Amino acid sequence: MNIVILAAGMGKRMQSNLPKVLHPLAGKPLLAHVVDTARALSPSALCIVYGHGGDQVPAALASPDLVFALQEPQLGTGHAVMQATPHLDDAAPTLVLYGDVPLTAIATLRRLLTIAGSDKLGILTVNLPDPTGYGRIVRQNGVISRIVEQRDANAAERVINEINTGIMSIPTAKLKQWLAALSNDNAQKEYYLTDIVAMAVTDGIEVVAAQPDAAWETLGVNSKVQLAELERIHQQNIAHALLEQGVTLADPARIDVRGTLTCGRDVSIDVNCIFEGEVTIGDGASVSAHCVIRDAAIKAGAQIRPFCHIDGAVVGEASIIGPYARLRPGATLGEDVHIGNFVEVKNSRIAAHSKANHLAYVGDSTVGSRVNIGAGAITCNYDGANKHETIIEDDAFIGTNCELVAPVTVGKGATIGAGTTLTRDAPAGSLVVTRAKPTTREDWQRPAKKK
Ligand code: UD1
Ligand code: CA
Question: What is the structure's pLDDT at 194?
Answer without folding.
Answer: 98
